[in-house]
Design brief:
Helices cover about 35% and strands about 20% of the residues. The protein has about 375 residues and is of the alpha/beta class. It has 3 domains: about 70 residues, no CATH class; about 55 residues, no CATH class; about 180 residues, 3-Layer(aba) Sandwich (Rossmann fold).
C-alpha cells in the first residue's frame, strides 16, 4: 500500500510540475505568487489541475449530502421573497491551489529559461556550531547534560560530606540530587567553513513617473531573480536603495511602497551602492548583483559624467553582473540613460541591459539578466 501511495504521489508531482511549466509565463506575468510569505513552500493557483480527493465506493450509502439529484447538479437556492439578492447567494468559481517547494520552483524556472548554473567566484568563511560533541562545558542545555557524570559527582560530594561530619550512615538509602556544580554538558566547538555568499542590491527610481504598474513589474521581476539566486548560494543578503535626486537605503516594504515627485539623478544610487559594498560586502568574500530599474530618464549629463565613470571604475570590477532594466509602459525605444550605457560601456559584458515595456517582457528580461551564469 505504501509503495502504491508513494507511486501515486510521485505521479501527481510530475503532473503539477508539468502544469506549472506549461503556465509559467502566465504565472510570472500575473504576479499571483509574488509576495507570498513562505521560506520553503509557496501556493500556486492552477486552473487546469485537479486536487486529489477521497472517493467512496459503490457500497457506501447515505451520508452528508445524500439524496435525489445528479452529480454536478447545483443546489437549489430559495428564491422566495423580494428585494435585491441576499449575501451568500449564487456560486463562485474557485481556482485550486497546489503547494510546491521553492527549490523545485526555481528548478522549473531554470529549465524553462535554460539558465546555466552559477559558478560562485569566492567563498566566505562562516562560523557554525560543530556537529561532533567532543568537549565539556560547565553550562549548556539540559538535553546535552551528561547524566551519569553528574550523578557520580553528586554521590561523591555527598559521601565526602558524610565523612566530614563523623556520623556513620551504614547502608541507609541515599537520595542523590546533583547541584549546579556537579553538572557537565556536551559542547561542540564552533567550526569555520567556507560558503558561497551573495548580495543583491536592488535599486529603483522612486520619482513620480515610476509608480503603479511599473512598480508591480519591478516587484515581479525581482522576486524571480531573487528566487533563482537563493538556490545557487548558501547565504544571500539583500539591500534596497530608492532614489530620485538623492538616494537612501530602505526596507523591502518601503522599497515598493514609497514614491516621490522629485527629479531623477541615477548617480546618487550608484554612489550609495558603491559605499555600501565597500563597507559591508568585500569583493573577495561576496558575489555581488546590483539590479537597477528606471524609466530611462536621467538628469542632463549625469549618465555620461557620473554614472559611466562610477560603473567603469568602481562597480563593474566588483560585480558578477550589473543589471539595468528600463521599465516603460508601451514604449520600446531606449531612454537616454540606456543609450549612453550601451554606447560607452559596450565592451564590458558584465553590464546587462533590458527593456520591459509590458508584463509580457518580464520572462525575456529575466533570461537576459541571468542567462550568462555568473
Amino acid at each position: 500500500m505504501r509503495k502504491r501511495i508513494r507511486k501515486d504521489l510521485e505521479r501527481y508531482k510530475r503532473i503539477v510540475r508539468g502544469e506549472i511549466r506549461k503556465n509559467l509565463k502566465e504565472l510570472i506575468e500575473s504576479g499571483e505568487i509574488v509576495g507570498q510569505k513562505g521560506h520553503d513552500i509557496v501556493k500556486i493557483p492552477l486552473k487546469s489541475i485537479r486536487i486529489p480527493e477521497f472517493r467512496y465506493g459503490r457500497r457506501e450509502q447515505g451520508g452528508v449530502g445524500a439524496g435525489p439529484g445528479e452529480v454536478g447538479q447545483p443546489i437549489q437556492v430559495d428564491k422566495r421573497g423580494d428585494g435585491p439578492p441576499r449575501p451568500g447567494q449564487g456560486s463562485g468559481g474557485h481556482v485550486p491551489e497546489v503547494e510546491i517547494e521553492l527549490q523545485e520552483l526555481a528548478e522549473i524556472l531554470g529549465e524553462e529559461l535554460q539558465l546555466p548554473r552559477i559558478q560562485p567566484k569566492g567563498l566566505r568563511r562562516t562560523s557554525r556550531s560543530g556537529e561532533e560533541y567532543q568537549d565539556i562545558s560547565l553550562v549548556g542545555p539540559e538535553t546535552l547534560l551528561r547524566k551519569r557524570q553528574a550523578f557520580r559527582a553528586a554521590l561523591l560530594r555527598q559521601l565526602l560530606l558524610e565523612e566530614g561530619d563523623g556520623r556513620p550512615r551504614g547502608r541507609q538509602p541515599r537520595i542523590v540530587s546533583p547541584i549546579r556544580e556537579d553538572k557537565r554538558y556536551l559542547y561542540a566547538e564552533p567550526q569555520s567553513r567556507p560558503e558561497a555568499a551573495a548580495v543583491i542590491v536592488f535599486m529603483r527610481d522612486a520619482s513620480g513617473s515610476m509608480t503603479g504598474e511599473k512598480t508591480e513589474i519591478i516587484r515581479q521581476e525581482n522576486y524571480w531573480i531573487d528566487l533563482w539566486l537563493r538556490t545557487n548560494y548558501q547565504q544571500l543578503e539583500r539591500v534596497y536603495i530608492l532614489h530620485d535626486y538623492e538616494a537612501q537605503e530602505v526596507s523591502e516594504e518601503q522599497f515598493y511602497s514609497l514614491s516621490t515627485g522629485g527629479g531623477t539623478r541615477i548617480s546618487a544610487a550608484y554612489q550609495l551602492c558603491d559605499k555600501i559594498l565597500e563597507h559591508r560586502f568585500p569583493v573577495a568574500d561576496w558575489n555581488i548583483y546590483p539590479i537597477h530599474f528606471s524609466d530611462g530618464e536621467n538628469w542632463i549629463g549625469d549618465t555620461e559624467n557620473n554614472c559611466v565613470p562610477l560603473l567603469k571604475e568602481n562597480l563593474l570590477p566588483k560585480c558578477n553582473i550589473f543589471c539595468y532594466g528600463q521599465v516603460t509602459l508601451g514604449r520600446r525605444s531606449p531612454g537616454m540613460h540606456l543609450v549612453k550605457l550601451q554606447e560607452l560601456l559596450a565592451e564590458d559584458d558584465r553590464l546587462i541591459t533590458s527593456i520591459i515595456a509590458e508584463r509580457e517582457d518580464i520572462l525575456t528580461s529575466i533570461k537576459e539578466f541571468l542567462g550568462k551564469g555568473r
